[in-house]
Amino acid sequence: MRIAIASGKGGTGKTTVATNLARIASSPGEQVAYVDCDVEEPNGHIFLKPEIKTTEKATMLYPVVDEEKCIACGKCAEICEFKAIVMIGKTPLVFPEMCHDCGGCYLVCPVEAIKLEKREIGVIETGQSEGVNFIHGKLNIGQVMSPPLIRAVKRLIPEDGLTIVDCPPGTSCPVIEAVRGADYAILVTEPTPFGLHDLRLAVEVLEELAIPFGVFINRSDIGTQDTMRYCEKRSIPLLASLPDDRRIAEAYSKGFIMADSLPEYRKLFLDMLNNLEQKSEKI
Amino acid sequence: MKELTVISGKGGTGKTSLVSSFAALANDAVLADCDVDAADLHLVLQPDIKRRENFTGGNIARIKPGYCVACGKCEEICRFNAVFFDGPGNGTQSRTFRIDPVACEGCGVCVWFCDYDAIDFKPHVNGQLFVSGTRHGPMVHARLGIAEENSGKLVTLVRNTAKEIAERDNLKIIIIDGSPGIGCPVIASITGVDLVAVVTEPTLSGIHDLQRVMKLGEHFSIPLGVIINKWDLNKEMTRSIEELTSEKGVEFFGKIRYDRAVTEAMVAAKSVVEYTKSPVTDDVTEVWQNIEKRMK
């Protein structure tokens, strides 16, 4: 079963929920994977502290023009929707950062003057953290696009067992890429005006992707009751909630997993996990 | 006219809350909300919208079922897994191919290579831009459509529109509310600005993400300074961050204590400095004064 942890608003507690679920779920005989798809700012490793076993460079293709073969027909620049190849007079100029790796220029060149070469966009690491199979991607600083790296990270998701996908904040293409293919999504929110506004957007995204979901309310005693009311009105399942406990914030700040350092919260995550496993049998 | 962008790396550190206070404290400012896929600044500034524009960042491919002969060429060449063999039947085929608009990258390759002219490639409205007045000056913000792309282009449009307004109204500063992360919308919100202020929090996650943002600033050679929000949640880590900034020769604009008034202000649709006279307001004011000094 693949569960995506998303939010809309940043900083609501996705990584907290994701790492705690992974920790609680890991037990002898149960395959659990934690996959950090927030490749721009991955944080799961801070809490799970995995022993890294593999490190691989992630790459994307980009066009290189053989100027001897090039006949300056301009078809490559014409097909490119992203201005990654532009004709400057009779010479095609390539901007590798803009290339979406669609293959168009390569396919369209009548004289096979274009070769596709690899460029590095980031790094993918895998490892183990006490029974949790850990996978994350880290985007190289200055790289513009994260979806290609997210796609590459997701290719490593195991076929079987429980996989928890920790997603980036927001509602645009990196989130779509991370969430797509999940059996269920947990939207982590805070009951404040910003939290609710962004939750509504995240709900629209999941409805567009037809992924069933529930809501986890973090810092439930701040803000207003509007978020609860919204969930009730829309019949969105409220999976669990955590109070605005300063001890949780302090443990988080030090990189501790709540289930380890504040064991009174273990039951909350265990119950949520059992609840989700029951839901998955129905899906 | 100067541009200041407020980013964070890690989400939820308090960018929008601070930008709304900066808007209240600044004179002659234009506000630009460049967190286009989860914009929240308008919730506090309550803009009076004067102009709406549709934003089109690119095209989207759509197979016309009536023309499709189900040869499968589009599925073969699509690099984005956007083509599915589950479209409606037509006079000659029981099934046709269909493009998932969410997965479609807008590259146009299938359109180019379809031998049957069966694929439409039309401009797609990705979102909307709004130009408004607020109690603290003109504001430009946007809404990226659900599951849409081209956020970087929309960010650039928001910034350019804000610049036009600043020039037209002779306003001195554009304050840009950025988004979390380090990818394309963030890059589009910081290239060419005069100063970037990074809002961080005293947690391991905050520091980790701050370091990546600092590298981003170096990569694009943009002057950058740090603000620590909720500093008293972990005083040791606050000290570490202050040491880090001094080590890296990066400016430190100041620190702001944790105060529930920040959330109460948000609920009241006010910035913190408008909402309360508690010490947290003094903290925010001092940070803003340091930024103003640096921008002169």
Q: What would a concise description of this structure say?
A:
The complex is a heterodimer of chains A (283) and B (296). Chain A has 283 residues and is α/β, with parallel strands linked by helices. Chain A contains eleven helices and eleven strands.
Tell me about this structure.
- The complex is a heterodimer of chains A (about 280) and B (about 300).
- With about 280 residues, chain A is of the alpha/beta class.
- Chain A folds into two domains: about 1-60 and about 120-280, 3-Layer(aba) Sandwich (Rossmann fold), CATH 3.40.50.300; about 65-110, Alpha-Beta Plaits (2-Layer Sandwich), CATH 3.30.70.
- Helix content of chain A is about 35%, strand content about 25%.
- Chain A has helices at about 15-25, 45-50, 75-80, 105-110, 145-155, 175-180, 195-210, 225-235, 245-255, 260, 265-280, and strands at about 1-5, 30-35, 50-65, 85-90, 90-95, 115-130, 130-140, 160-165, 185-190, 215, 240.
- In chain A, the strands form two sheets. Chain A has a nine-stranded mixed beta sheet, sandwiched between helices. In chain A, strands 4-5 form a two-stranded antiparallel ribbon.
- In chain A, helix 1 (about 15-25) crosses helix 11 and helix 5 packs parallel to helix 6 (about 175-180).
- Chain A is elongated.
- The N and C termini of chain A lie close together (about 10 Å).
- With about 300 residues, chain B is of the alpha/beta class.
- Chain B has two domains: about 1-55 and about 130-295, Rossmann fold; about 65-115, Alpha-Beta Plaits.
- In chain B, about 35% of the residues lie in helices and about 30% in strands.
- Chain B has helices at about 15-25, 40-45, 75, 110-115, 150-170, 185-190, 205-220, 235-245, 260-265, 270-275, 280-295, and strands spanning about 1-5, 30-35, 50-65, 85, 95-100, 120-135, 135-145, 175, 195-200, 225-230, 250-255.
- A nine-stranded mixed beta sheet of chain B has the order 3-6-7-2-8-1-9-10-11, sandwiched between helices. A two-stranded antiparallel sheet of chain B has the order 4-5.
- In chain B, helix 5 (about 150-170) packs parallel to helix 6.
- The longest helix of chain B has 19 residues, at about 150-170.
- Chain B is elongated and about 75 Å long.
- The termini of chain B are close together.
- Chains A and B meet through helix 4, helix 6, helix 7 and helix 9 of A and helix 4, helix 6, helix 7 and helix 9 of B.
